[in-house]
């Protein structure tokens, strides 16, 4: 296995086990209530992360 210092970011992602089933944004949501101040911007960050995580195709336990 090559030294991780020599690998690029995309090459490192290829080493992480992929999810067996296709995932959606719903798979990265929780029934837990989010308590942030309205307008703080954290909701936008959370939505962005939940939106791109399925595109990575990684299993949730490997994130």
Protein model, in words:
The mean pLDDT is 81. It contains 2 helices and no strands. The chain has one domain (18-62). The protein has 63 residues and is mainly α. The two termini are 21 Å apart.
Distance between the termini: 21 Å
Number of domains: 1
List low-confidence stretches: none
Mean pLDDT equals: 81
The coarse silhouette is extended
**How many helical stretches?**
2
Spell out the blueprint of helices and strands.
Blueprint: H1 9-13, H2 42-56
Short note summarizing the structure:
The protein is mainly alpha-helical and 63 residues long.
Features:
63 residues, mainly alpha, 2 helices, 32% helix, 0% strand
């Amino acid at each position: 296995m090559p030294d991780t210092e020599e690998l690029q970011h995309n090459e490192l992602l290829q080493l992480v086990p992929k999810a067996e089933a296709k995932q959606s944004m719903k798979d990265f949501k929780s029934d837990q209530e989010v308590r942030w101040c309205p307008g703080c911007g954290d909701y936008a960050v959370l939505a962005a992360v939940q939106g791109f995580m399925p595109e990575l195709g990684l299993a949730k336990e490997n994130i």
